[in-house]
């Protein structure tokens, strides 16, 4: 078992990584203050995850003396909307959740983001516990308190910071994770190696395959989880509300979010879009002299090893992509902000990227050939 403390002014908590941890969720909650057992907990999930793991969570809670109800939402990024969020509020009202109540997010990043936002806004803020079931949610969305839903004009434009009381990661659930979702999460793991942890980057280079968890041993997977989560925690504890440093976690996301949106969240999933965004940002960094062509190539090789997409269709309208970039929530003073690598293990935020350099990066994305 690995325990990573997250020490924040607003609320400190722990990230617990434990094989079989879902069977002990009640015991973990018993140890937390202000988690009431005399009012219902509401578990939020999607149909597939609920079918696989819902009963495990319910029985573990019941064993510890907690009462629980559940709310099942449709799966998919396109349902991460205010309309879907209403279903959580309706369930909270139906089950009489109060200010001492707790929401439990059981699922991937979409469920975690929506449940966290519901917890932030129901009765002006109640407890939320994150039990991520996808690798992407484990290493990224469940940690740091960013919550929200999408607007038709952009991803995560509606949201709030609301830290969880606990993040409980059970690596065993990854055995049922589809290969495409596993590969998508590796994009975020590569991100941590590029912006923060060169040792993690080297570890990924040493692995023979990154496209399927079956080729990664439990020990290697645990180290990937621990190093990725620790990187996220390191950054978040230095900058909880993205006043500065935390923005480096958006590496690959500026362009990635635009690609998700232009494809209506169907063409690319989040990790695939981030991988493409990192390739684009890497090309910009090389053009501006931030890092070397060899470092850009090393990043591309890892993305290719994970069998993630490395190019976009030339048919995608670049002017539409630029419009979406300009409406990104990270834009300041009308300037598009990019996170750019300064070498393996460090990054910088800048809004001084000329339009022609962005256009060149998009053109390069249309010509990259996968190996």
UniProtKB/TrEMBL annotation:
Domain annotation 3-dehydroquinate synthase N-terminal: ranges: 71-183
Record localization: Cytoplasm
Matching SUPFAM superfamilies: Dehydroquinate synthase-like
Sorted UniProt keywords: Amino-acid biosynthesis, Aromatic amino acid biosynthesis, Cobalt, Cytoplasm, Lyase, Metal-binding, NAD, Nucleotide-binding, Zinc
Gene3D superfamilies in alphabetical order: 3.40.50.1970, Dehydroquinate synthase-like - alpha domain (1.20.1090.10)
The record's free-text note on cofactor binding: Binds 1 divalent metal cation per subunit. Can use either Co(2+) or Zn(2+).
Cofactor(s) needed for function: NAD(+); Co(2+); Zn(2+)
Entry-linked Pfam families: DHQ_synthase, DHQS_C
Record-annotated 3-dehydroquinate synthase C-terminal domain positions: 186-331
Residues annotated to bind Zn(2+): 188, 253, 270
EC assignment: 4.2.3.4
Pathway info: Metabolic intermediate biosynthesis; chorismate biosynthesis; chorismate from D-erythrose 4-phosphate and phosphoenolpyruvate: step 2/7
Residues that hold NAD(+) according to the record: 109-113, 133-134, 146, 155
Record-level Gene Ontology MF annotations: 3-dehydroquinate synthase activity
Catalytic activity: 7-phospho-2-dehydro-3-deoxy-D-arabino-heptonate = 3-dehydroquinate + phosphate
Family to which the UniProt record says this protein belongs: Belongs to the sugar phosphate cyclases superfamily. Dehydroquinate synthase family.
Cited PANTHER family: 3-DEHYDROQUINATE SYNTHASE (PTHR43622), 3-DEHYDROQUINATE SYNTHASE, CHLOROPLASTIC (PTHR43622:SF7)
Described purpose of this protein according to its UniProt entry: Catalyzes the conversion of 3-deoxy-D-arabino-heptulosonate 7-phosphate (DAHP) to dehydroquinate (DHQ).
NCBIfam families: aroB
Protein name according to UniProt: 3-dehydroquinate synthase
Record organism: Candidatus Synechococcus calcipolaris G9
């Amino acid at each position: 078992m690995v325990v990573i403390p997250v020490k924040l002014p607003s609320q400190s908590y722990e990230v617990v990584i434990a094989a079989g941890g879902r069977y002990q969720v009640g015991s973990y909650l018993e140890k937390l203050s202000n988690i009431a057992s005399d009012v219902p907990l509401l578990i939020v999930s999607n149909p597939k995850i609920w079918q696989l793991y819902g009963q495990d969570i319910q029985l573990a809670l019941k064993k510890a003396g907690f009462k629980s109800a559940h709310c099942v939402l449709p799966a998919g990024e396109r349902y991460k909307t205010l309309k879907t969020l209403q279903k959580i509020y309706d369930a909270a009202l139906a089950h009489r959740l109060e200010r001492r109540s707790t929401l439990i997010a059981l699922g991937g990043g979409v469920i975690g983001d929506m449940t966290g936002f519901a917890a932030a806004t129901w009765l002006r803020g109640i407890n939320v516990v994150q039990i991520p079931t996808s690798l992407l949610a484990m290493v990224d969305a469940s940690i740091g308190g960013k919550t929200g839903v999408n607007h038709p004009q952009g991803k995560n434009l509606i949201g709030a910071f609301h830290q969880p009381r606990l993040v409980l990661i059970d690596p065993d659930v990854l055995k049922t994770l589809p290969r495409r979702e596993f590969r998508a999460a590796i994009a975020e793991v590569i991100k941590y190696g590029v912006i923060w942890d060169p040792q993690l980057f080297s570890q990924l280079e040493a692995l023979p395959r990154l496209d399927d968890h079956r080729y990664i041993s439990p020990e290697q997977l645990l180290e990937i989880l621990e190093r990725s989560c620790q990187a996220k925690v390191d950054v978040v504890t230095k900058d909880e509300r993205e006043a500065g440093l935390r923005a480096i976690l958006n590496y690959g996301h500026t362009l990635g979010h635009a690609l998700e949106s232009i494809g209506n969240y169907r063409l690319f999933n989040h990790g695939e879009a981030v991988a493409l965004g990192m390739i684009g940002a890497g090309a910009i960094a090389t053009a501006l002299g931030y890092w070397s062509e060899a470092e850009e190539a090393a990043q591309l090789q890892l993305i290719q090893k994970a069998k993630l997409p490395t190019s976009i269709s030339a048919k995608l309208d670049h002017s539409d992509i630029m419009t979406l970039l300009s409406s990104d929530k990270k834009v300041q003073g009308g300037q598009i902000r990019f996170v750019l690598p300064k070498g393996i293990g460090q990054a910088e935020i800048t809004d001084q990227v000329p339009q022609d350099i962005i256009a060149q990066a998009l053109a390069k994305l249309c010509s990259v050939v996968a190996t």
